[in-house]
Structures are given as C-alpha cells and as structure tokens.
Amino acid sequence: MKRRNVLFIILGIVIVAIIHNYIDDLRSELRDELTLSSERLKKELKLKEKMSMEIGEHESKRVTSGILKTPTTSGAVSKLHSYISQLMRSAGLDIFTVRTNPVVKYKYYEGISITLEAKGTPEDILLFLKKVYNSNVAITLKKISIVEMKRENTEDMKITLDMEGLRRL
Predict the structure, then answer these.
(1) Does the pLDDT at position 68 exceed 60?
(2) Sign of the C-alpha dihedral, residues 6, 12, 13, 14?
(3) Which domain holds residue 141?
(4) Dihedral (C-alpha) 146, 149, 155, 160: value to the nearest 10 degrees?
(5) What is the mean pLDDT of the segment spanning 38-53?
(6) For the purposes of burial, counting CB atoms within 10 Å of the CB of 43, is it exposed (0-12), middle (13-18) or buried (19 or more)?
(7) pTM above the 0.85 mark?
C-alpha cells in the first residue's frame, strides 16, 4: 500500500512536470511571437516616419484634409463630379461622359467612385493628372486608360478614368 502511494505521488509529479513543460513551451512560443511582432511594428513605424518626412507636410495635409466633407452620399458624388469636371475643363480637356459607380463602404469611410471619359492633347492630360496629384482632395485613380484617337491631323488622345474620393461616415 505504501509502495502504491509512492507510485501515485511519483506519477503525479511526472504529470505536473509534463504540464509545466508544455505551458512553459507555449509561453516561450508566445514570447518569441510577440518579440517578432514588436520588431516588425518598430520597422513599420520607422518606415512610416521616413516616408512622412520624405513626403513632407504638403502630402500629409492633402491626405487628411482632402476627404470629401459632405453629409450625404449623393452630395459627395455631386461634389466629386463637379470638382473633377472643373479640373478637367481647367486643364483643357473635353468631357464625353461621366458615370457614377456604386459606393464602396469601408470601416470609417465611403469610396465615392466615378468613371470619366474625355479627350485632349497629351499636354492637357498631363496637366490634368498633375492637378489631381496636387489636389487637396483625397482622390485615388483606380484605373486609367489613354489611347490615341484615330483621326487625321489631330494629336488628341482619349482618356478614361476610374476615380474614387473618400467621404468620412
């Protein structure tokens, strides 16, 4: 009987040791994973700081202040439409069509998406793209197509754009 109790005690100690080693291994794996995640996050933060320093204040203000600030989706669509149309006309482009695409919902923003077709000289198209880039409105060019128009004695080109502006919800 005494021998049996000693065996149960030894068996209990072995089981506790196995459980302890298992928990210690899990703790060690978790510690290693947290260390790697921490190092990765530090690298990403350094890269973000470096990029923000390279981009400068102008770009960071452009991204944060350039969100379409309208209370409704339809108001934001018309505001983006008129803003892009104004940029196109001021660059010398002739607008053919403007189509509104379905609104894309993000966690904190809506993507107001439109498709535009216009024509102009390569210089006009370049001027328009520069104006979009230097704009204070957060606009993303999702898709762009520039093709030569098949007409005699003209250097006009056709540009098709899928653009998206952001609106805070």
Answers:
(1) no
(2) positive
(3) 73-168
(4) -30
(5) 73
(6) exposed
(7) no
| Same-domain pairing of 86 and 150 | yes
Contact assessment for residue 59 and residue 134, using Cβ atoms and an 8 Å cutoff: no
Structural tokens at position 33 = 């994973």
| Domain match, 77 and 137 both | yes
Partner residues linked to 68 by β-bridges: 167
pLDDT averaged over every residue in the chain: 79
Q: Where are the beta strands (DSSP E) in the chain?
A: 94-100, 104-105, 109-120, 139-148, 157-168
Look up residue 75 and give its two tokens: 């108001």
Number of domains, the chain: 2
Is a pLDDT exceeding 90 seen at residue 153? no
- Indicate whether 90 and 142 sit together in one domain: yes
37 and 102 part of one domain: no
**Tell me, what's the pLDDT at 7?**
87
